[in-house]
Amino acid sequence: MDQLQYVSDNLRHGPAAIWAHLHPVIQSLKEDIDSSIIYFIINGPTTQYRNKINFYLFATKVYEYGFTCASLNFLEAGHGKGAADGIGGVIKRKADDLVNVQGKDITCAKDLLEGLKSNVNVHLHEVVEEEIDKIESGLPNNLKPLPKTMQIHQLQTVRPGEVKHRVLSCFSCQETFCNCFNPVTTSFTVEDTAINLLELEARRIPQLIKVENVVCKNLKSKYCVMRYDGRPYPRIILDVDEEEEEVEVKVMHCVGVNRFFGP
Ligand SMILES: [Zn+2]
Predict the structure, then answer these.
(1) What's the 3-state SS for 68-82?
(2) What is the CA radius of gyration of the chain?
(3) Residue 149 carries which DSSP code?
(4) Using CA atoms, how far apart are residues 49 and 46, in angstroms rounded to an integer?
(5) CA of 151 to the centre of ligand 1 (A)
(6) What is the DSSP letter of 96?
(7) Contact status, residue 217 vs residue 240, Cβ threshold 8 Å
(8) How far is the CA of 190 from the centre of ligand 1 (A)?
(9) CA–CA separation, 109 and 118 (whole Å)
């Protein structure tokens, strides 16, 4: 995995900012490793990550990237993130050099990005204010806190807007989310989530073509959406049998957010 460092003119550290910063890394993960599940491991029991807004974003945003399941894990304090802090230190020293040695002016994130581009061996990404605003504007304002929020160490979502959570984590069982240590399920209600499944489906497949409810030869080579296991998947119609009212479809592979290709 490449190292990714963020720069931003925005100094917000709340959940919307966190998810705006996570965007490029989650997107490239989904593209590089086409996994259906994503694990987050968070260092330290900080309130920045352990709150109802972050839990809500966790329970909704992962689906926008095409994951069907996600796990969020909090480590106890003291588990260092030395490597990440080390990269941050290198960036800061290089930025000092740009100003002190090369005499450059750095007045904003863009200047820093431009100046460091050829100087550091990490991917640099700028998070702009609009990306944070976009996430923030989609947040419902009546979210209820999860019971025992400050003690929760492990959460999982398998359905948009729903989280299963527990105070003690289990990493021993092979199941994605076992029933050890009495997990509790909490749903952000539909009004709360303001996220409607149909809307989510439409967002995943933007070029949704409405297929007439009549099976005819014209459908050949057209795209369609097939519901499998409760989720929509794009397909290409290979052949049509008008008499039997059947279509033969070709599977497409997911290669990222809203990106599919046919084999
Ligand atoms: Zn278990």
Answers:
(1) CEEEEEECCCCCCCH
(2) 22
(3) G
(4) 6
(5) 18
(6) H
(7) yes
(8) 30
(9) 15
Helices (H), 70-158: 82-100, 109-116, 129-137
Tens digit of pLDDT per residue, the chain (263 long)?
567 778 888 887 889 999 999 998 899 888 888 888 999 988 765 678 889 999 999 999 999 999 999 999 998 766 656 666 777 788 888 888 889 888 888 888 888 888 888 777 778 888 888 999 999 998 988 888 898 888 899 999 998 999 999 999 998 887 767 889 999 999 986 444 444 555 555 555 444 444 445 778 888 888 888 777 667 778 888 888 887 778 888 877 777 666 777 65
Q: Whole-angstrom Cα distance, residue 39 to residue 68?
A: 12
Measure 64 CA to ligand 1 centroid, in angstroms.
Answer: 28
CA of 66 from ligand 1 middle (Å) equals 26
Q: How far is the CA of 195 from the centre of ligand 1 (A)?
A: 30
Find the 183 Cα to ligand 1 centroid distance in Å.
Answer: 10
Using the mean position of ligand 1's atoms as its centre, give its distance from the Cα of residue 119 in Å.
46
Neighbours of 72 (CB within 10 A): 24
Ligand 1 centroid from CA 41, angstroms: 17
- Decide: helix, strand or coil at residue 55: helix
Separation of alpha carbons 128 and 8, rounded Å: 6
d(CA 164, ligand 1 centre) in Å:
13
Distance between Cα 165 and ligand 1 center (Å): 13
